[in-house]
Write a structure and sequence with these properties.
Length: 383
């Protein structure tokens, strides 16, 4: 990472504990939506009934009933024929990014990514020193022409994308674009890493068919309990063809033997008891309101030449700034006004992000969104 990026990420870390600053820069779920009591009860049941087993070592693959639960949910929600053999439990889906890079990437290999792309993926992949190839996004997802050209010319080891409510932009791929991408993958024998961290966070609770549905053997999917249950439990999964899973198991075993078994048991127990669909609906209705409020304030009080994305789910939106306002300078000015935004710069593997900032709407309260947007307006007005 270059020093400019490092220095502002360090500053961001420094200010993240300042209670006077309203943060739109983070990426946390709303803490009021964590079901503390439900998870506490599940933990108690696990300790009472299977404590000795839960505190023991287990297999690298992950707790079979939890993998079966995930497979069933894919079948029910998305109509894809998932089975537990294709699913592995990991320490948060972030671990899938590291382990996938570990098995696919050697120094100098090409890897494709959305432009802008998820910062955490760029960080994870960068450890293996690949050469990044960014593909631009439009209103319907990544450019199909750009995607085709990449797979035909550069033959990347895989392409990493987030078709649902992308981080950082909040954009989603249209169904048509998903089909086009799938067709290209099948023709070119390419691999798409489909990060579905936000798939369940659809404001209208409507499931959207993943690219995997149209190119089953060409996709590695990852999913996460972080956004719908609790990020602190660090529970996520990979869902991939069995030949990739075999390699993944070796990498996972070498990394940590297995994911936290106690948490896997608690999660499984919790999922069996709680009304998850209702819980997710509640999250979505609250995030929808917060997102609407932030969008309305963008439109009503920020200058007309600030352009925003229009998320239909997830936790983020992206603002493109008026000509002449640099995102890093706005970050600094924002801190003076006690509001933090995330400059787009770390979401680009090359140049880019000087003219945009990411805003998070899931974590701040509605009052904080209202006040924070006024402060952001004041910061922009200063330029
Ligand atoms: C797009 C995306 N993928 C993966 C992750 C990692 O999440 P976790 O490791 O908590 O599952 C995040 C976290 O914010 C994310 O935004």
């Amino acid at each position: 990472m270059n020093t400019q990026k490092e220095s502002f990420l360090n500053r961001l870390f420094d200010v993240s504990n300042d209670p006077e600053i309203i943060s739109f820069a983070g990426g946390l779920p709303d803490k009021n939506l964590l079901d503390v009591k439900g998870i506490e009860n599940a933990a108690q049941d696990v300790f009472e009934n299977e404590g000795r087993e839960a505190l023991q070592y287990t297999t690298t693959t992950g707790y079979l009933p939890l993998r079966e639960y995930i497979a069933e949910r894919y079948k029910k929600r998305l109509g894809i024929p998932a089975c537990a053999d294709e699913i592995r439990i990991v320490n948060g889906s972030q671990q899938c990014l590291d382990l996938t890079a570990k098995i696919f990437l050697d120094k100098g290999d090409f890897v494709g990514i959305e432009k802008p792309g998820y910062l955490g993926a760029i960080e994870a992949f960068s450890m293996y020193q690949p050469s990044f190839k960014g593909v631009e996004m439009d209103g319907e997802g990544i450019s199909a022409n750009g995607f085709r050209e990449l797979f035909e010319k550069e033959k990347p080891k895989f392409f990493y994308g987030i078709p649902n409510f992308q981080n950082p932009s909040g954009r989603s791929y249209s169904t048509e674009r998903r089909r086009e991408i799938a067709e290209i993958l099948t023709e070119t024998k390419g691999i798409f890493y489909e990060d579905d961290a936000f798939g369940e966070l659809s404001f209208d609770n409507r499931p959207i068919p993943p690219v995997k549905k149209f190119a089953y053997d060409n996709t590695i999917m990852s999913g996460s309990f972080s956004k719908i249950i609790a990020p602190g439990m660090r529970m996520g999964w990979i869902y991939a063809p069995c030949e990739i899973i075999k390699k993944f198991d070796c990498a996972k075993q070498a990394a940590d033997l297995h994911s936290n078994f106690l948490c896997q048991k608690i999660m499984h127990h919790y999922l069996g008891k709680a009304d998850i669909d209702n819980h997710i609906k509640k999250i979505n209705s609250i995030y929808k309101r917060k997102c609407r409020l932030m969008c309305d304030l963008c439109d009503d009080i920020l200058p007309g030449d600030v352009i925003r994305t229009d998320p239909k789910g997830g936790m983020f939106m992206l603002l493109t700034l008026p000509k002449g306002i640099n995102s890093l300078k706005l970050f600094d000015r924002g801190l003076e006004k006690k509001v933090s935004v995330l400059p787009g710069i770390p979401f680009y593997t090359g140049k880019g992000g000087e003219d945009n900032v990411r805003l998070n709407f899931s974590s701040p309260s509605e009052d904080e969104i209202a006040e924070g947007m006024k402060r952001l307006k004041a910061a922009i007005d200063d330029f």
